[in-house]
Specification:
- This protein is of the alpha/beta class.
- The protein has a single domain, classed as 3-Layer(aba) Sandwich (Arginase, Chain A).
- Helix content is 41%, strand content 9%.
- It is built from 12 helices and 8 strands.
- An 8-stranded parallel sheet has the order 2-1-3-8-7-4-5-6, with helices on both faces.
- Helix 8 runs parallel beside helix 12 and helix 9 packs parallel to helix 10.
- It is globular and about 55 Å long.
- It binds zinc ion (ZN) (2 copies).
- The site of one zinc ion has 6 residues, from loops.
- The site of one zinc ion has 5 residues, from helix 9.
């Protein structure tokens, strides 16, 4: 079965313009690095499609989709902007925004459909992972929530969906959209909302109604390193995944946990990006016959971190080894545009320099979360 990358240059039309931190050049840099390494030869690259209006309203309100459409034609409409979370700053409307955002959702659906039909075993939807978009609200550079639409696609087939979000920011939109169901379990490891957007993701956010116990949050302190991140992941994710018994895994691989990332305060390296991919890959084979949809997400250290992190992720997704050296041809091709020295090595030594109090606090949080959630899941089954 194929394990493709889902991408086309159309995905780059999702771009808020010059100066905005979400720089779509990162997609070109990452996919070009994969191509240079020969990683795209085996399964090819599958283009997205444009999600239909009906598919978007699986998770978004019809009024919101209509507003995005209207703003897409007339980005300067002040009232619509204000009502739905758009405006200068994080989410400036742009011409063609609806089509661009619906293409990102369509990429998630192409991946999900391939996995559901058995054509794909795993897939990496690199431009996806827009986890902050809410039912009727744009937020945090996210217009339509493609990962939530993919989760909903599987849920409608009667599948139990495990969503794991490794972005430095809390996966608040996805969590909110499935807050009251026990069919989609969301786990988010993120920098604590005390210091970082969107300010949520507290361990007490456990879901509601039938969904109580099916929203899992592990907030991490600033300066969290690879060692502590891995420790918290291991404390929570495998045990909760086994207790939940999913039919499919959907994962968000935001790489803004990196210590170089300009928007966040964690101290991880690309080690965590590859580690997370490896472990959820293993869990997908252990628990759901390998059915696994991986997406991109945040990542604002565009030149040095994102291309390496997502190339390492796709190496895992496609069962191919990634060498330790960044190809000279790739470095040469991008050198003229890069504002800084491009990396020579694909990997980094895992970081372990966090203050002991950070590590202890994180581990204590993770242990309490795991204990509470496993108790709730045990009661439910
Ligand atoms: Zn596999
Ligand atoms: Zn993020």
């Amino acid at each position: 079965m194929a394990c493709p990358l889902v991408y086309s240059p159309d995905c780059r039309r999702y771009d808020f313009g010059g100066g905005h931190p979400l720089n779509s050049t990162r997609l070109e840099l990452a996919t070009d690095l994969m191509r240079e390494l020969g990683l795209l030869d085996r399964f090819g690259v599958v283009p997205p499609r444009v999600a239909s209006e009906e598919e978007l309203t699986w998770v978004h309100s019809p009024e919101y989709v209509a507003a995005v459409r209207a703003l897409s034609h007339r980005p300067d409409h002040p009232l619509l902007s204000r009502l739905y979370g758009f405006g200068p700053g994080d989410n400036p409307p742009f011409t063609g925004m609806h089509e661009a955002a619906a293409t990102i959702v369509g990429g998630a659906l192409v991946a999900a459909e391939g996995i559901a039909s058995g054509a794909f075993l795993h897939a990496f939807h690199i431009s996806g992972g827009l986890h902050h978009a809410h039912r009727a609200q744009a937020s945090g550079f996210c217009v339509y929530n493609d990962v939530a639409v993919a989760c909903e696609f599987f849920r409608r087939r009667g599948w139990r969906v495990l969503y794991v979000d490794a972005d430095a920011h809390h996966g608040d939109g996805t969590q909110a959209l499935f807050y009251d169901t026990d069919e989609v379990l969301t786990i988010s490891l993120h920098e604590t909302g005390r210091y970082l957007f969107p300010g949520t993701g507290d361990p007490e956010e456990l879901g509601q109604g039938r969904g109580y116990g099916y929203s899992v949050n592990v907030p991490l302190l600033p300066l969290t390193d690879d060692a502590s991140w891995v420790e918290c992941f291991e404390c929570v994710v495998p045990a909760v995944a086994r207790a939940f018994r999913p039919d499919v895994l959907v994962t968000q691989h935001g790489c803004d946990t990196h210590r170089r990332d300009p928007l966040t305060d964690l101290s991880c390296t690309v080690y965590t990006a590859e580690y997370f991919a490896r472990r959820v890959h293993e869990l997908s084979h252990e628990l759901c016959d390998g059915r696994w949809l991986a997406t991109g997400g945040g990542g604002y250290d565009v030149w040095v971190t994102v291309p390496r992190a997502w190339t390492l992720v796709y190496g895992v997704v496609s069962h191919q080894d990634v060498p330790d050296t960044v190809p000279e041809a790739w470095r040469r091709r991008w050198r003229a545009w890069a504002p800084e020295e491009l990396p020579h090595r694909m990997r980094e030594e895992p970081s372990h320099g966090a203050p002991p109090v950070v590590r202890a606090h994180n581990l204590d949080t993770a242990r309490r979360v795991a204990e509470r959630v496993l108790e709730l899941l045990g009661r439910g089954s």
